[in-house]
Hints:
By secondary structure, the protein is an alpha/beta fold. It has helices at residues 10-26, 37-40, 86-100, 117-125, 164-175, 201-211, 226-237, 256-268, 282-291, 317-322, and strands spanning 2-4, 45-52, 55-64, 69-77, 105-111, 129-130, 143-149, 156-159, 182-188, 215-220, 247-249, 272-274, 295-302, 336-342, 354-359, 363-368.
Amino acid sequence: MIAPDDPRAGDVRALLARHLAFAHANSEPRDVHALDVDALTDPSVSFFSARADGELLGVGALKRLDATHAEIKSMHTAEAARGRGIGRAMVEHLLGVARERGFRRVSLETGSGEAFAPARALYASAGFAPCGPFGDYARSEASTYLTLWLDGPPRLALSWSGGKDSALALQALRAAGVEPAVLLTTVDEESATVAHHGVSVSLLERQAAAVGVPLTTVAIPARPSNGVYEQRLRAAFAAGPLAEVDGVAFGDLFLEDLRAYREARMSEAGLRAEFPLWGRDTAVLAREFIADGFAATLVSVDGDQLPHALLGRAFDAGLLADLPPTADPCGENGEFHTFVTGGPVFSAPIAVAPAQRRTDGRFAWLALR
């Protein structure tokens, strides 16, 4: 029988100690992510045990990551009970709890070494598929990340500006087993360019072809009121490919007010808002972008935060070294915007050349062709 239990109970504590000992025996200390007893009593964690006639057979836990995403933790079967399907029963129980609580996705981290092969096989048999790091995890060769969409992957549009956060969001979605149905871009109806970036629609179309996802644009007046902006988007979601999506994924990183605005607008439309990069360390993310082989050019610079001389620079290690300490490495505060020309989400790089530079005094833009 599987039921809620107290991780501080004597026999449970002893089994959890063996669980931690196994993890430390087969992983470097920095690669051990198992929770201790105190962490398992956190309100975000629901802890369960499997027992037969009072005998402890195994344990497992479900940790809430956010309103739609949970993580399986502390899966361990007592040695004497192995081979009896206890682990599979616990996984199915935890997935059932996740469904009852309205989670749409369940993920987990386990080791990549041979000692963890039985665990990886168990999760694969339950339908889990490889994914990228989630939550607070970082890339590590010692870790395998797995995920399961309880009702199948969502059909999402991806908010697409042509910049690095859009490309990273696409990479993260694909790593989680989600292929966007469409790229969504709002463009200035007079100039046919992306607001703030100044990138032409023709360049976005080349990007869309290279990433293999169709592009849908929504024309917006220059400096529109929120009312006009929202009306145009509502009309776009009422017809065409956007009428068929479940929600929109955004590449936002940490701006709480912007996230709240997007979530409110999506909720009003009966759509979900997904943030596959949310909470990631922007310094780490910037370095990963470069290490993964992405190529991008700065096409807009805010002169109140950065010198205009950075316009046209490649987004590389040299640029990161030249950014002042007040600047976010990913430009999340609007310090700069980029245009991505290649990387692991592209079938082939996009050839561009610098064209006209312009400025309004504060902001500077570089047109590409």
